[in-house]
Design a protein that fits this description.
It is a single chain. With 361 residues, the chain is α+β, with helices and mostly antiparallel strands. The chain folds into two domains: 118 residues, Phosphorylase Kinase, domain 1 (2-Layer Sandwich), CATH 3.30.200; 217 residues, Aminoglycoside phosphotransferase (APH), C-terminal lobe (Aminoglycoside 3'-phosphotransferase, Chain: A, domain 2). The chain has 14 helices and nine strands. The strands form three sheets. Strands 1-2-3-5-4 form a five-stranded antiparallel sheet, sandwiched between helices. Strands 6-9 form a two-stranded antiparallel ribbon. A two-stranded antiparallel ribbon has the order 7-8. Helix 11 crosses helix 14. The longest helix has 21 residues. The radius of gyration is 21 Å and the shape is globular. The protein starts with 12 loop residues before the first helix and ends with a helix.
């Protein structure tokens, strides 16, 4: 029964019993209830699972599940399916997550269809039930937790640096693709209608991206190639008693590992901690790479890349700089912290000057 539900309401006891059996043999679900739901980029739901009374096979089976699938709205469903973010994330949990030592949510059910519809469903560990926390925006990992997270990223990066390993284990992961005009359109809207809310350095970088997106994307791909998370900002991390885990693998790509490192440092650490510790943390990442046998990257090259990669923070903020009026208070809190980090990094790292000096842009 490979049916992929289109909504949480289609998940019944029979389907869930069969779907859980791959990872929990012998499981017998008695009933499923939807405890909560939310429509964000995708459709989210939190499920409470009740098992058959006296079923001794259910030990270790989840009592609560986080469900992720395509949006319910037909128009948004098609638009999000075309990005293939859901398919990439499903494939990550199906094939790559079991190979990694880093902390990721445990996958209990992974189903997807590689046709034009792009349907998928992920039933993942409910991090709230596991006692984990996800930042609401201002909260940040400590420098020590950041060092541990960089160690985990380094291990993944080094493992997939070998082209043959990538071909065998992650052949479906694609290189960074050419940009759509989505980011440019949103940044132009931000500059036209909300310029007073943006720093001069951010506005200058946004204008450059609007003018030369292809040149910037080509520059951001330079360096050794490997599998990277691709979206290591604070909203895609969680804390598990001091251990940093990584969420939302829908943008997993083959690109330079320094993209992950720079984005993580700039968009996860507090501004103060990033200013105080980014050089030491980059050196720590490079030392771990060396110890694991990764290709050698000098600190000077890594620091240059850090400054250049900071330019990406402008298009990464494209949805935020339109300042949507219908944003929830929680979303506004997160967006404010996101934009603060991005703006400070672009200015502190003199990213615009680095592009002129090293790339003639």
């Amino acid at each position: 029964m490979n049916f992929v539900p289109a909504s949480p309401d289609q998940i019944d006891a029979a389907w869930l019993s069969e779907a859980l059996a791959d990872r929990h043999p012998g499981v017998r679900v008695e009933s499923v209830e939807i405890a909560d739901r939310a429509e964000v980029t995708n459709s989210h739901a939190w499920l409470r699972v009740h098992y058959a009374s006296g079923d001794g096979e259910n030990e270790g089976a989840p009592r609560s599940l986080f469900c992720k699938l395509l949006p319910m709205d037909p128009t948004r469903r098609v638009a999000i399916a075309q990005t293939e973010m859901g398919l990439r994330e499903a494939k990550f949990y199906d094939t790559l997550a079991p190979r990694l030592a880093m902390r990721t949510p445990r996958a209990h059910v992974v189903r997807y269809e590689e046709d034009e519809g792009g349907a998928f469903i992920l039933l993942l560990e409910d991090l709230n039930e596991s006692g984990c926390t996800v930042s609401t925006g201002p909260e940040s990992p400590t420098p020590d937790a950041a060092a541990q997270a960089l160690e985990d990223l380094a291990a993944m990066h080094v493992h997939f640096e070998d082209p043959e390993t990538r071909r065998k284990e992650a052949g479906w992961v694609s290189p960074l693709s050419a940009p759509s005009d989505y980011g440019s359109i949103r940044l132009r809207e931000g500059l036209d209608h909300h310029r007073e809310k943006l720093t001069d350095a951010f506005a200058e970088m946004a204008a450059l991206y609007i003018e030369k997106p292809l040149s910037l994307h080509a520059l951001w791909k330079e360096g050794p190639q490997t599998v990277i998370h691709g979206d290591t900002h604070i909203g895609n991390l969680f804390d598990d008693e001091g251990v940093t885990g990584f969420l939302d693998w829908g943008l997993v790509i083959v690109c330079t590992p320094l993209r992950d490192v720079s984005y993580f440092l700039n968009m996860c650490l507090s501004v103060e901690d990033r200013r105080a510790h980014d050089r030491d943390l980059i050196r720590h990442y490079l030392n771990v790479r060396n110890a694991l046998g990764g290709s050698v990257i000098s600190f000077d090259d890594a620091w240059k890349a850090h400054r250049i990669q900071a330019a990406y923070l402008a298009p990464a903020s494209c949805q935020i700089v339109v300042f949507p009026e219908d944003a929830t208070d929680r979303r506004k809190r997160f967006a404010a912290a996101f934009l603060e980090r991005a703006s400070a990094a672009i200015e502190d790292l003199e990213s615009r000057a680095a592009l002129r000096e090293f790339a003639g842009l």
